[in-house]
Amino acid sequence: MAYQIKQLAVLAGVSVRTLRYYDQIGLLPPAYVGDNGYRYYETAQVDQLQQICLYRELQVPLAEIRQLLNQSPAEVTVALQAQYQKLIDQRHQLDWQLQLLQTTIKTHAGGITMTDTEKFAAFKQAKLASNEHDYGDELRQKYDQPTLDAATAKFGQLSARDYAAMQATEQQLLTALTQVLASGTLVSDTAQQVYKLHRQWLSYTWPDYTAAKHRGLATMYLADDRFTAYYDDRVGDGATAALVAIIEHYAQD
């Protein structure tokens, strides 16, 4: 049986717009297009859409779904195991956020008093949860899970003094980067200071440093608008590009 796009949308519980988008990105092309210009879908496309909907329920990104549809059962199993671990990590973060929210509610109600240590621990967990929400997918594409887990653990172990030092280092970095941007010179004593400050800032959360990892991180800064905006918004347009160029020049093994 052949379904027109509206019929398939009703059958699968998705929108016509979604099906058109899936066709546009090559995820679910129709079986054929009729002389009337309508898309028609047959059993094979229905089965594929069922798989796509399942993966979407599991929060698998569309780019990964396209790969999964063309992989062997063994490769799919490995990918789904990774997605399973990702959801477990998200559940842990959500459990902590719920616990933090409950504790905060009780604190405001006068039921309990949080110590400064507890407040700082809660703050760090909130930062980790925010980072996971904003950049989790991108970081997992760049680094393996053990590396990310080690960085998370190191950040979680920061003392209030260490965190304050980390923030102060970043402020020095932004000041130096502002000077570099104003000078227009990316190879100078100040530019080298920018590199050293950025490396020092990373040391607070990176378990181990290599120049290659540093350069790899720099590529992410320009590959994603959100990363680019972080420095451009704080220093000025072109700040991120300048920082990346500095890292690529000075971060050498």
UniProtKB/TrEMBL annotation:
The record ties this protein, via Pfam families, to: MerR_1, TipAS
Q: Which residues form the HTH merR-type domain?
A: 2-71
PANTHER family given in the database record: HTH-TYPE TRANSCRIPTIONAL ACTIVATOR MTA (PTHR30204:SF90), REDOX-CYCLING DRUG-SENSING TRANSCRIPTIONAL ACTIVATOR SOXR (PTHR30204)
- Superkingdom of the source species: Bacteria
The record's annotation in CDD domains points to: HTH_TipAL-Mta (cd01106)
Query: Which UniProt key words apply to this protein?
Result: Activator, DNA-binding, Transcription, Transcription regulation
Molecular function GO terms recorded: DNA binding; DNA-binding transcription factor activity
Which SUPFAM superfamilies does this one have?
A: Antibiotic binding domain of TipA-like multidrug resistance regulators, Putative DNA-binding domain
- State the taxonomy lineage: Bacteria, Bacillati, Bacillota, Bacilli, Lactobacillales
- Mind telling me what this protein is named? MerR family transcriptional regulator
